[in-house]
Amino acid sequence: xxxxxxxxxxxxxxxxxxxxxxxxxxxxxxxxxxxxxxxxxxxxxxxxxxxxxxxxxxxxxxxxxxxxxxxxxxxxxxxxxxxxxxxxxxxxxxxxxxxxxxxxxxxxxxxxxxxxxxxxxxxxxxxxxxxxxxxxxxxxxxxxxxxxxxxxxxxxxxxxxxxxxxxxxxxxxxxxxxxxxxxxxxxxxxxxxxxxxxxxxxxxxxxxxxxxxxxxxxxxxxxxxxxxxxxxxxxxxxxxxxxxxxxxxxxxxxxxxxxxxxxxxxxxxxxxxxxxxxxxxxxxxxxxxxxxxxxxxxxxxxxxxxxxxxxxxxxxxxxxxxxxxxxxxxxxxxxxxxx
Length: 339
Ligand code: 5GP
Ligand code: MN
Hints:
Number of strands: 13
Helix content: 25-40%
Bound molecules: guanosine-5'-monophosphate, manganese (II) ion
Low-confidence stretches: none
Number of helices: 12
Mean pLDDT: 97
CATH class of the largest domain: Alpha Beta
Shape: globular
């Protein structure tokens, strides 16, 4: 993978561009791709954002989201756009498998592939150009750097600011994770100085849910959480019946994994959700416990040091048992927590 700086001389040359992200895009995946879209469309490019799957309703306020193609819903059209592409930007994922059904199409494409990502262990051989920086808070922060490094920061408009802020805010847990560097605050200061209405973005993202979802969270915390004090760990497991009962949609469970970390002493939190086609796992930790390696070794996943995910095809009860066994294997690290 060559340096992303090598593409800057080409940035003013009209191109057909696809921008994509990981499946079930979160605030950072959707925010960073749309910010890049609003930047590139100010040149003579034809740019299209394609999501590998659907996304949460709470992202639907984002400028430009209506034009995003859902690959699973509109596969023929998406394949035609990919077939024409000169450049494919791959944002907020480290391995092509994170694009699910798009993986084989992306790998077969002869377009130039450009990575912008902050996850660990990127699959660098499949990208022609790119930047992978695991110290960055978010892909949104990296798109901001990309725009500055291109020399066209005068093109940062309100749509770009809104999308970048949504990405950086969601990926830093509202500016509380250790990845929230002074550069992050400088970026946000710059966006606010340019006129960004930041509290509106917070409201758009966090105050637009259904009553059902709040009752579902209440039920989950009351009846679906196990706390293992000996291991400084808490686990939430959610059945398909729960999802149906409370009419839970894509994105409604986002952030739920963080709740147990508010219990004094808890250093690892996990959630296992029976999504029908698979059991989806999320892991969060504080300090020295590495959930990226944990997810890689036990749940066919990965991510970051303190936030990772994985999946399993086994039944929910089996995955819960597997988690408890894996947690027990790591007793020494979990009980010797360091900040
Ligand atoms: P979440 O738990 O919010 O789904 O994901 C936490 C972090 O881990 C995100 O950065 C996400 O991209 C990454 N992640 C989630 N699931 C997987 C997975 O199955 N495989 C890999 N490699 N990364 C994942
Ligand atoms: Mn991200």
